[in-house]
Design goal:
Elements: H1 6-29, H2 37-54, H3 57-63, H4 68-88, E1 98-103, E2 107-112, H5 114-138
Antiparallel strand pairs: 1-2
Helix pairs in contact: 1-2, 2-5, 4-5
């Protein structure tokens, strides 16, 4: 029996976005400061788990119709491809490239292939964590 958790549901809707945007900040800050794909992925997963606690698994699945197994596979492919690409360029495995670009609104910005690797890690962490949570949540 599900109780009427109006305050929890209202608060979860607001806190979800706060945690999610903070996880994006941690993801992008991770190249120069502590953080990155792993911590950002855990924060995103915790935001989704908050929604699962406030509502239920079926409701969250209708709101976020994501197949987390595909997300995990995509993250693994992206992370491995980013790490393996330098081999085809005659450089060691895990060599990262970067360059400086003038982007509108941001100015002179350095873009790194390490961010692509972190994105792969982010997708793997969110995918695996949410697959585990959904599997446990479905168990009656």
């Amino acid at each position: 029996m599900k109780t009427n958790d109006l305050i929890l549901q209202f608060t979860a809707k607001i806190v979800f976005f706060i945690i999610f945007f903070f996880s994006i900040h941690i993801f992008f800050a991770g190249h120069y400061t502590p953080g990155g794909g792993f911590v950002g992925g855990l924060l995103t997963s915790s935001a989704i788990v908050l929604l699962v606690i406030a509502f239920d698994l079926k409701t969250v699945r209708t709101i976020l119709p994501i197949n987390y197994m595909y997300m995990t596979a995509s993250g693994l492919i992206l992370a491995f491809a980013t790490a393996a690409y330098p081999i085809f360029d005659g450089k060691p495995f895990f060599t990262h490239y970067f360059d400086y670009f003038n982007l509108p609104l941001f100015g002179k910005t350095s873009l790194h292939t390490a961010a692509l690797f972190d994105l792969g890690v982010f997708l793997v962490v969110v995918g695996v964590t949410m697959t585990i949570i959904q599997t446990i949540g479905e168990d009656e």
